[in-house]
Amino acid sequence: MMINKNFFLDTHKYLNKIAKEIIIPNIGKLSENEVSTKEDNSKVTRYDVIIENELIEYFKNIGFSNIISEESNSELIKKNEYLTVDPIDGTRNFINGINKVAIMVSFIKSTRCEFAIIYDPIGDIFYHTHNNFIFKNHKQIKPQNYSNQIGFLGEHAKVYFKDIITSYTEKIRSRSIGYDVIEAIEGERSFLTVYGSKIWDLFPAMSFLKLLNFETNLPNMEFDYSKLEKKIIFYANL
Length: 238
Description:
Elements lengths: L4 H22 L8 E3 L5 E3 H16 L5 E3 L11 E9 L1 H6 L5 E8 L2 E9 L4 E6 L2 E4 L2 E3 L8 E2 L3 H6 L8 E2 L6 H9 L5 E4 L4 H13 L3 E2 L15 E4 L3
Parallel strand pairs: 3-4, 10-11
Antiparallel strand pairs: 1-2, 4-5, 5-6, 6-7, 7-8, 8-9, 12-14, 13-14
């Protein structure tokens, strides 16, 4: 399996097919029996499961064997090399008909991210990282230059991060880490906080934020599991 431009072009084409056939026709139109609540009180829909299964089959067919996904996590996390899949990041938005959802993928090898994908299925915008660059619809883009801090801090976070971000313009969270990162890429958000994250949304987000030259309260930006229980802030260095 070659990780090259054709790989990303083909993956974009496949994700667009999923968007057209599953996400766009059903966003905001789910019946009660298509939605359930998980043990952690998060929501899952039948379409999360359908898309996840489609993505697992797609990536297995092109050579990825160790795949960790949101609805069928496994002991594969202990492997040195693995692909993560988040079929619908922003499930509550999907349920409520809010067009801020993303499909997120990352490929981790020896605590380094080889590539990450954040796909906006509504706008058909494909962002990916590879070889220490960020691409938007397969064209390399440069990090933004932020003139002021913009983002959202809850009351607890304001205290916790009072010495990191002291002056900012408030921008409410999108309820999708992936979409928050898209806004950071586009210069519409200069920081975001991540609490209780999972490997399939944190690691793709980290890949982009690292290349956006964001600062963080993490001791390092390696892709290891110790970060999953931390309260993390990523912020632009003005």
